[in-house]
Write a structure and sequence with these properties.
Elements: E1 2-6, H1 18-32, E2 36-42, E3 54-56, E4 63-67, E5 70-79, E6 86-92, H2 94-97, H3 114-132, E7 138-142, H4 147-155, E8 167-172, E9 180-181, H5 185-189, E10 203-204, E11 207-209, H6 210-217, E12 220-223, H7 226-234, H8 236-239, H9 243-247, E13 253-255, H10 283-296, E14 306-310, H11 319-331, E15 335-339, H12 344-356, E16 361-364, H13 369-378, E17 381-384, H14 394-400, E18 404-408, H15 411-416, E19 428-430, H16 435-450, H17 452-464, H18 469-496
Parallel strand pairs: 1-2, 1-7, 2-6, 7-8, 8-12, 12-13, 14-15, 14-17, 15-16, 17-18, 18-19
Antiparallel strand pairs: 3-5, 4-5, 5-6, 9-11, 10-11
Helix pairs in contact: 1-18, 3-4, 4-6, 10-13, 11-12
Length: 497
């Protein structure tokens, strides 16, 4: 199939979170199964065109696109080699994308023209197919920012203009990010104003909601784990106000567990590590532990675990459940390596804990991909006390690196981590979103840590877990076929009408 992916992120050059990793890995897995995958992203101002091998496509003309009452000139660029399995196209529009940042500026504030950026991205992606004369079987939009493409496919290209059937698939990576804007946002999108009034696709409590519209416009919708799919239709908290909309899609909405990119996340040959290791020979992991402690200036108690955390410091990730415990556990001999940025108050609280316990708590308030790999490898436990987690990739990475996850039973964490109490356990699971329940899980881990033989067996089980992308790619193929067939039927019906 010819698959047009539309995303705001793609690792490693345009990445904020797991979305970027997923787009890169899924596109590669599908290309490996002989599909023609082309990804369209904005050409952000921070990208180094020379280093990333970004060049304009001479044979394609620049296009003038209307966003609201303004016209913007856009030009298409290609990244990497034209012979790459996955072709990556970037939309160059300096007036909207020329600054640094993907969603926010350097202060963490959302861009005021976020809706205009999304609108142009969607238009440019669909026009590219026509300019290339490349018949699209599936338009695959990732998260709310890409949803305008699905609306344009439905309302501007219904039965005409877009080469190929263009079945629409929406993958929701995080339902909490919906791109909600004032009602006049419908004018920015260039769509009929009736769409922003009930029962229009965009209408959401008097505002415009891109994700809601995408859910209704897509032929098939999925999220990134089976448990999260269930949670988002059954629970108002997890559903973030869209639980009824999702439930209304019935069997057209499901969960496909993300995979892990083991070509990048492999402790045997990870260039970021001081030593490689395998499940059969963990001596290199001990080297990684010692080096991490030295790098971060920690003095760990050999009889207590070193706990790692890599991720956004936001309420969702449950870091505030761990904050009340850091001092107590540090006094007991636990050590912590915390890497991430996010909410300023949470950053300040973690930094204060590190200042109070400099030998036991290290905080690096930045994004450092290589250091993240070293924390996965050098830690004994990996903390993921998330309040909700659509899928999570960090627990998969930590398992492969022999670092046992401590997780809350939610979303993809529930689908991947089995508690140590069970014979096939690969981590430590707790239920209540409370510091007390997290502490109980850490105390259970502390007990198992003392039994080195049992700990090693659990490490080996975790390292042998296989969450590769091959299974997930096969499941995406199924919903692609369903979306393609649905779109072809709609085009045929539209032609008869």
């Amino acid at each position: 199939m010819n698959i047009l992916m539309i995303s705001a992120e793609m690792a490693p050059f345009a990445k904020v979170g797991g979305l970027g990793d997923v787009v890169t890995a899924l596109a590669g897995a599908l290309a490996g199964r002989k599909h023609d995958v082309r990804v369209v992203l904005p050409l952000y101002g921070h990208l180094d065109r020379t280093r990333e091998k970004i060049r304009p496509i001479a044979k394609l003309p620049s296009v003038a696109l209307r966003v609201g009452q303004e016209m913007h000139d856009a030009r298409y660029h290609l990244m990497g080699s034209p012979r790459s399995r996955v072709k990556i196209y970037l939309v160059d529009c300096p007036t909207l994308y020329g600054r640094e940042g993907i969603y926010t500026d350097s202060r963490g504030d959302s861009f005021p023209d976020a809706l205009a950026r999304a609108a142009l991205h969607g238009q440019a992606a669909l026009q590219l197919a026509g300019l290339l004369d490349w018949p699209v079987d599936v338009v695959h939009a990732h998260d709310a920012e890409a949803c305008p493409a699905l609306l344009y496919r439905r309302h501007w290209y219904a039965g005409r203009g877009l080469p190929g059937p263009g079945g629409c698939v929406l993958t929701i990576h995080n339902l909490a990010h919906q791109e909600i804007h004032p009602p006049e946002g419908v004018d920015t999108l260039g769509l009929q104003r009736s769409m922003a009034s009930y029962p229009g696709l965009l209408e959401f409590h008097g505002k415009v909601n891109l994700l809601k519209a995408g859910i209704l416009a897509a032929d098939r919708v999925n999220t990134v784990s089976p448990t999260y799919a269930e949670e988002t239709t059954a629970d108002e908290t997890f559903g973030c106000g869209l639980q009824g909309v999702l439930a209304g899609r019935g069997g057209d909405y499901n969960g496909i567990l993300n995979g892990a990119d083991y070509a990048t996340w492999d402790p045997r040959r990870d260039p970021a590590l001081p030593a490689g290791y395998t499940a059969q020979d963990l001596s290199g992991k001990e080297v990684c532990r010692k080096n991490l402690l030295a790098e971060l200036g920690l003095k760990a108690d050999q009889n207590k675990p070193l706990c790692g955390f890599v991720g956004r410091l936001v309420h969702q990730k449950g870091i505030d459940l761990a904050l009340p415990l850091l001092g107590r556990l540090a006094d007991d001999g636990f050590s912590f390596a915390i890497l991430g940025t996010g909410d300023r108050k949470l950053e300040a609280a973690v930094r204060k804990a590190a200042e109070r316990h400099p030998d036991k708590v290290a905080f690096i308030g930045a994004f450092d991909e290589a250091l993240a790999h070293r924390i996965y490898a050098g830690s004994d436990l990996f903390l993921m006390p998330s309040l909700f987690e659509p899928c999570g990739l960090s627990q998969m990475y930590s398992l492969r690196y022999g670092t046992l996850p401590v997780v809350r039973r939610t979303g993809g964490l529930a689908d991947t981590i089995i508690d140590a109490k069970r014979r096939n356990g690969n981590g430590f699971v707790f239920d209540e979103a409370s510091p007390e329940d997290l502490l109980a899980a850490l105390r259970r881990a502390e007990v198992l840590w003392a039994d080195r033989a049992a700990w090693r067996k659990m490490q080996e089980r975790g390292m042998k877990c296989d969450f590769s992308w091959s299974v997930a790619a096969g499941r995406y193929e199924k919903i692609y076929r369903a979306a393609k067939n649905a779109a072809a039927a709609q085009v045929k019906q539209h032609g008869r009408a």
